[in-house]
Amino acid sequence: QPQDRMRFTALLLLAICIVHVANSELIQCGKWTTKTVTVGQNTNSGFNTNKGTRRCSVLFKIGPGCEVMKMFCRRFFLPNRDDYRCRDRKGDVMQVKTDGEKPRVYCNHRKPTPDFPVMSTRSLKATVKMARPYKKYPNRGATCFVSCDQS
């Protein structure tokens, strides 16, 4: 009896892990990447830039069972000399466009956070533009996540 319970518990945990991995997709941005992702009720998705990324554009569309999606970033450093508007063309920038609004820009350490995420009811397009790779900032880049907001 105890062995059967342990097997059942192990199989249940394995099934939960498989379902969680199946509904999560972290896009690895290449040099020039364009992707479209549908965000459903149990979807956890996002993107991750690397040293060679020049432009990464991901369109997140709302899917069945989800009314509002949210985006926030964990690892985020996109160096730009214009700290306020991120308009230095030689610097790195992330633009996020939601529904019918003007794009919001983020750079340096200013980013969407779990406490203040970007919210959308239809679509959300995140575009990271990075200047040529240079040795001064080896840890630059962004890792951001999008999920259905169920609060």
Can you give a write-up of this model?
This protein is mainly beta and 151 residues long. It has one helix at 2-22, and strands at residues 24-28, 32-39, 44-48, 55-62, 69-77, 93-98, 104-106, 118-120, 123-129, 141-148. A 5-stranded mixed β-sheet has the order 1-3-10-5-8. A 5-stranded mixed β-sheet has the order 2-4-9-6-7, with no helix packed on it. Strand 6 and strand 7 (104-106) form a beta hairpin. Residues 10-22 have low confidence and may be disordered.
Features:
5-stranded mixed sheet, 1 helix, 151 residues, mainly beta, globular
End-to-end Cα distance, whole Å, is 40 Å
Number of distinct helices: 1
Please state the CA-atom Rg, rounded to the nearest Å: 18 Å
Global geometry: globular
Reading the helices and strands in chain order gives: HEEEEEEEEEE
Q: How much of the polypeptide forms β-strand, as a percent range?
A: 35-45%
How do the strands of the widest beta sheet line up side by side?
1-3-10-5-8
The total of beta strands comes to 10
Main pleated sheet: 5 strands, mixed
* Helix content percent band: 10-25%
Structural class comes to mainly beta
Q: Which stretches are low in confidence, meaning pLDDT under 50 for 5 or more residues running?
A: 10-22
Overall mean confidence score, pLDDT? 86
Task: Give a short summary of the structure.
With 151 residues, this protein is mainly beta. It is 14% helix and 41% strand.
Topology summary:
Blueprint: H1 2-22, E1 24-28, E2 32-39, E3 44-48, E4 55-62, E5 69-77, E6 93-98, E7 104-106, E8 118-120, E9 123-129, E10 141-148
Parallel strand pairs: 1-3, 2-4
Antiparallel strand pairs: 3-10, 4-9, 5-8, 5-10, 6-7, 6-9
